[in-house]
# Entry
Amino acid sequence: MIEDMGKFGALFGLFALSAFGASDDDAIRNTFVKPWIEALRSKDKARIERFYHPAVRACINPGNQEYFDFTLDLEADADTSGADHITRLAPIKSMPAGLLPEDGFRIPVQPTYEIQVDFDPGELMVEFLAQWNGSWFEVLPCPNEKGMAYFRKQFAESAEQRKEAVHLLTELKDPLRSELKDLLKRQQKIDAIKKYQAAASVDLTTAVLVINALQKSKQ
# Structure
């Protein structure tokens, strides 16, 4: 799912595949992963939305539409053109606590699997999945009025962070800039983020945004 708020999931960490049922593995790969990646690459938001769990789609209404539009924009804008690799596919009991305020968001259906997909040269998406009618779908939290207020506040802060990241990118000079671009070419995005964060003495979110901007820059 993704930069900025990016489904509010974790952005980092590579994990070995955990043990899980072969039948679930095949079903997730065939009914979700393959067609979902094709939908992402099509940039067709209506097509991407069809991979939201029916319980999630049922909670979309005029009061929270902008939140779901934002999540669709993130998925459609993600750079998924490179080769894809499943780096984590494991059963879970519930969506991790603490990602969002509990009084502002509800989980319409509990996910039972977590999947992490890396796209070369560095895009990373984490999704939570639940089964319905023999197929697997993405689970997203549904915001209430408090949740929407939280989302709008986070979105405004994120806009300021992106603006600052653009400014910092203009100040990024060699040799650090070349070193970071070399790490990105070698598909070592996490190392590039850590290196920039240490060199520039910025917080992790800012470092991620600067490296994302550098990755998209042609300079």
Q: What stands out?
A: DSSP finds eight helices and six strands in the chain. Residues 1-21 have pLDDT under 50 and may be disordered. Residues 6-143 form a domain with the Nuclear Transport Factor 2; Chain: A, fold (CATH 3.10.450). Residues 28 and 34 are 9 Å apart (CA to CA).
